[in-house]
Amino acid sequence: MLNYVPLTQQQYVDLLLNFISSQEGHAATRYQNPRDHTTIGYGYTFFRNNNLALWQAAGITLTSAEVALLQSIDAAPDSQKDSLALQFTRSISKPEAVELLRQTYPEYEGPANTLVMPFSEERIAFVSLTYNRGVLAVNTKMQAFFTAIGNQDRAEAWYQIRYNSNGKRNDPDPTQGANGIANRRYAESNLFDLYENTMTTEAEAKSIFRMYTVHRSTISGYESSFPPATATSRTFRDESFVARNLLLSTFALFADAPVVSGEVLVGSNIGNRDNVPGNDLLLGEARYNNLRGQGGDDIIYGNIVGDDLYGDAGNDVLEGGEGRRKYRRGRFGWELGSNKREIEEIDDVCYGKV
Length: 354
Fold this sequence. Notes:
The structure is a single chain. By secondary structure, this protein is an alpha/beta fold. The chain is built from 14 helices and 14 strands. A six-stranded mixed beta sheet has the order 4-6-8-10-14-11. Strands 5-7-9-13-12 form a five-stranded mixed beta sheet, with no helix packed on it. A three-stranded antiparallel beta sheet has the order 1-2-3. α9 packs antiparallel against α10. The longest helix has 24 residues, at 202-225. It is elongated, with a radius of gyration of 26 Å. The two termini are 34 Å apart. Mean pLDDT is 88; it is low at 323-348.
């Protein structure tokens, strides 16, 4: 589910202006980074046709020469706008920059409007991302986020913001923008929030780790390239701590249970293509499951239909579904009820359907 954190319109505008300005940082004079447009204030770019109208609407007093230059930029072809903007020499204060931001942020609300996102913290996070990345890039390169919102999948939407919207992540020199964007996406995903409720439910915890199971190699690689760099930005392991503990306490705290020191994974096809070497907790879905523990002492849960559960190497515990029948020192490749399990160590335990 995806229940938004609601805000009044005034709360939304105030928090949006504060959040975007904190992420952009104040530039009193114009500048131009490689491959970017000429910029001033809190991310205001001159690459547009209505500069003069926006500056006047913001209540910024302009000289006649500044008015003429802004008119020239507005009338110029796209190929000349940035070079003309570099001739703009005046400074703007932080209050002026905020008023300029107030005039321009609505241009970046289109994708959020398409998704019918209400005034909320989640909408602010997405509008901030759009303000930074651009409407065109968001509409063409973030369809997975649109799908996640349509599916009411908070965890997947959070992943798309945090790990899959850094347009410069593959640049050869990350100091030329990728590092800064990564830090911004960490902040935006923090505001969007991984968690639906202050009291995490089993369903929510499973949703978080279902997302992680699909994307764990990407998450690991991204955090290795762009380590969370601030006190409020944490690794996925830290972000998911509450959900992980809930699943462990629900499924892995019983007599003689192995200590889960490795992964917690949720899905219907785990370990068949992925490497799962540690002491893991594998949770199947409400459909056919094909789960492999691979190495380590694993706890593996199927469901109420005929599953294929493989302990592989290690002393594993396999739970097949409804009803419990306990086996020790199992044979290779045996069946019980409608669940098939392969036990490759003599101390494995299986709970099956009756």
